[in-house]
UniProtKB/TrEMBL annotation:
<feature type="domain" description="Arginyl tRNA synthetase N-terminal">
    <location>
        <begin position="1"/>
        <end position="39"/>
    </location>
</feature>
<feature type="domain" description="Arginyl-tRNA synthetase catalytic core">
    <location>
        <begin position="64"/>
        <end position="403"/>
    </location>
</feature>
<dbReference type="GO" id="GO:0004814">
    <property type="term" value="F:arginine-tRNA ligase activity"/>
</dbReference>
<dbReference type="GO" id="GO:0006420">
    <property type="term" value="P:arginyl-tRNA aminoacylation"/>
</dbReference>
<dbReference type="InterPro" id="IPR001412">
    <property type="entry name" value="aa-tRNA-synth_I_CS"/>
</dbReference>
<keyword id="KW-0547">Nucleotide-binding</keyword>
<dbReference type="Pfam" id="PF00750">
    <property type="entry name" value="tRNA-synt_1d"/>
</dbReference>
<dbReference type="InterPro" id="IPR001278">
    <property type="entry name" value="Arg-tRNA-ligase"/>
</dbReference>
<dbReference type="InterPro" id="IPR036695">
    <property type="entry name" value="Arg-tRNA-synth_N_sf"/>
</dbReference>
<dbReference type="InterPro" id="IPR005148">
    <property type="entry name" value="Arg-tRNA-synth_N"/>
</dbReference>
<dbReference type="GO" id="GO:0005524">
    <property type="term" value="F:ATP binding"/>
</dbReference>
<comment type="similarity">
    <text>Belongs to the class-I aminoacyl-tRNA synthetase family.</text>
</comment>
<keyword id="KW-0067">ATP-binding</keyword>
<dbReference type="Pfam" id="PF03485">
    <property type="entry name" value="Arg_tRNA_synt_N"/>
</dbReference>
<dbReference type="InterPro" id="IPR014729">
    <property type="entry name" value="Rossmann-like_a/b/a_fold"/>
</dbReference>
<keyword id="KW-0030">Aminoacyl-tRNA synthetase</keyword>
<keyword id="KW-0436">Ligase</keyword>
């Protein structure tokens, strides 16, 4: 109105002024006064090249110290299908945050404490009473009479015995107390089991490509727990309830009931929540510049971590630290339920990866140009990448069906399809280089 012209006339004048601009292929006036711009291929290529030359890809964030907690294996237990998503998603988040310039510390948070350890000590003493760690005085065993495969069978046997026999449970509780009080022989055996488990699990981490800066466990924060509980009681944050200690974490704005955090049972025993709260305290003390902690854990633990985060806030244990729960859904079988072995047991991670590698090997079998070693290496690369791609291409908080046959397909939205596209691109670049064309930054 101020120009005394209708919108289309103004649009036509603007289009004429933009005609011939090097960033544009075309400028068109449409409708009552719309202007349609088509960017030129050269302009887009130049923008992509400039962005590709920048290690930060044009992103700019203020670097912060972050801890990312993922993996979460247990001593004496193999990594199973439930660890897959934590490892794949956690490692991806670690790389993304590091790529953004943040100072990222990855921690595996090993389950290496509690009654399960006492059960194992009691079971091992019954089977191998001659071990030097049970002697008087105790000595570190020169070697162990069991390997990781044996150890993974010991815990189910010990747990079953404790369920069936109250005396066995009492023995396990006594051994747990002895371990936690620092009895030398128990500590020697515990250290050996921990080292044996970590050695096997570290190999699985390497297979999946997960990197950890810290291999700390629940045991590392146990010295903090007595003082932490005393502090919470003195400040009235932890209160008695039916002989136990709880921390009220409900808020008026809650849309659903929020149960209190159980800090200690009536017998004084600490719980997972106690350890997780102490772990936040330890991380803040370890890293004075800590800005965030990200937990990559099964979505079904969301309530637990909400309670822990609220308790930490009430206690003032993580001032200025953002606590984030990055939950994920389950890996399911064809029936839509959490993936199991054919025998109905929990599938081990190594077996799941082997299944995908095996399917990839079947796809490569007709390739006469590959010798056996090359075929095996390629099948391993394709199989593991297929599993990781399927995991990351699924919505994080939802479950997905693990179908090895589909995962290794070279058609559709699969890892092998993306790998094949990368190989084709590399082939084009090789041919271009042979003809004297230098590739750009991307």
């Amino acid at each position: 109105k101020s120009q005394g012209q209708n919108p289309r006339e103004i649009a036509t004048a603007i289009a004429a002024a933009l005609a011939g601009h090097p960033a544009l292929d075309s400028v068109e006036v449409a409708g009552p006064g719309f202007i349609n711009l088509r960017l030129s291929a050269r302009f887009l290529a130049d923008c992509a090249t400039a962005q590709g030359s920048d290690p930060m890809m044009g992103l700019r964030e203020v670097p912060r110290r972050m801890v990312i907690d993922f993996g979460g294996p247990n001593v004496a237990k193999p990594l199973h299908v439930g660890h897959l998503r934590s490892l794949v998603i956690g490692e991806s988040l670690r790389r993304i945050l590091a790529g953004l310039g943040h100072h990222v510390v990855s921690d595996v948070h090993l389950g290496d404490w509690g009654l399960q350890m006492g059960m194992l000590v009691a079971e091992i003493r019954r089977r191998w009473p001659e071990l030097s760690c049970f002697a008087t005085p105790p000595r570190p065993p020169a070697s162990l009479p069991f390997d990781m495969a044996d150890l993974t069978l010991l815990y189910p046997a010990a747990a079953a015995a404790c369920r069936e026999d109250p005396d066995r449970m009492a023995e396990a509780r006594a051994d747990t107390a002895a371990l936690q009080s620092g009895e030398p022989g128990h500590r020697m055996l515990w250290s050996a089991m921990r080292a044996l488990s970590l050695a096997a699990q570290t190999r699985d981490f390497a297979t999946i490509g997960a990197h950890f800066d810290l291999l700390l466990g629940e045991s590392d924060v146990q010295p903090l727990i007595p003082g932490m509980i005393e502090d919470l009681v003195e400040r009235g944050i932890a209160i008695p309830s039916d002989g136990a200690l709880i921390v009220e974490v409900a808020a008026e704005t809650d849309a659903r009931p929020m149960p209190p955090l159980l800090l200690a049972k009536s017998d004084g025993a600490a719980l997972y929540a106690t350890t997780d709260l102490a772990t936040i305290l330890e991380r803040v003390q370890r890293f004075p510049d800590l800005a965030a902690i990200v937990y990559v854990v099964d979505q079904r633990q969301s309530l637990h971590f909400e309670q822990v985060f609220r308790a930490a806030a009430r206690a003032g244990y993580a001032p200025g630290v953002t606590l984030t729960f990055a939950g994920f859904g389950t890996v399911n079988g064809p029936d839509g339920k959490p993936y199991k072995t054919r025998q109905g047991g929990v599938a081990q991670l190594a077996d799941l990866l082997d299944e995908a590698i095996g399917k990839a090997a079947e796809r490569l079998a007709p390739r006469a140009d590959l010798d056996d070693d090359a075929r095996a290496r390629l099948a391993r690369t394709i199989g593991i990448a297929a599993v990781k791609f399927a995991d990351l291409s699924s919505y994080r908080t939802s479950g997905y069906v693990f179908d090895p046959e589909r995962l290794v397909s070279f058609e559709g939205r699969t890892g092998p399809y993306v790998q094949y596209a990368c190989v084709r691109i590399a082939s084009i670049l090789e041919r271009a280089a042979a003809e004297g064309h230098a590739p750009g930054a991307i």
